[in-house]
């Protein structure tokens, strides 16, 4: 099988579009996880979901720091 530059270009565009789609899925899942964990911490700490519970939860919960920084300690 012999591929020319046009065939390779089309194939690379297809692979790039597929990779972009999965990257968007990953960012969406990560964002949802951080938001859900933040709301859950607020509920556990204060018994309701409010700004008064979210702010202390963000300041004092190291697990949320790890989620927000994506596990990279340089971003914390």
What does this structure look like?
The chain starts with a helix and ends in an 8-residue tail after the last helix. The radius of gyration is 20 Å and the shape is rod-shaped. It has helices spanning 5-46, 51-60, 62-68. The protein has a domain at 48-76. The model has no long low-confidence stretch (mean pLDDT 77). It has 76 residues and is mostly helical. α1 (5-46) crosses α2 (51-60). The longest helix has 42 residues, at 5-46. 78% of the residues lie in helices and 0% in strands.
Which descriptors apply to this entry?
3 helices; single chain; mainly alpha; 78% helix
Q: How many β strands by DSSP?
A: 0
Q: Structural class of the helices, strands and pairings?
A: mainly alpha
The helix count comes to 3
Give the mean pLDDT. 77
Distance between the termini: 50 Å
Helix content bin: over 70%
How much is the radius of gyration in Å?
Answer: 20 Å
* Beta-strand content bin: under 5%
Helices and strands, in N-to-C order? HHH
Largest sheet at a glance? none
Shape: rod-shaped
Low-confidence stretches: none
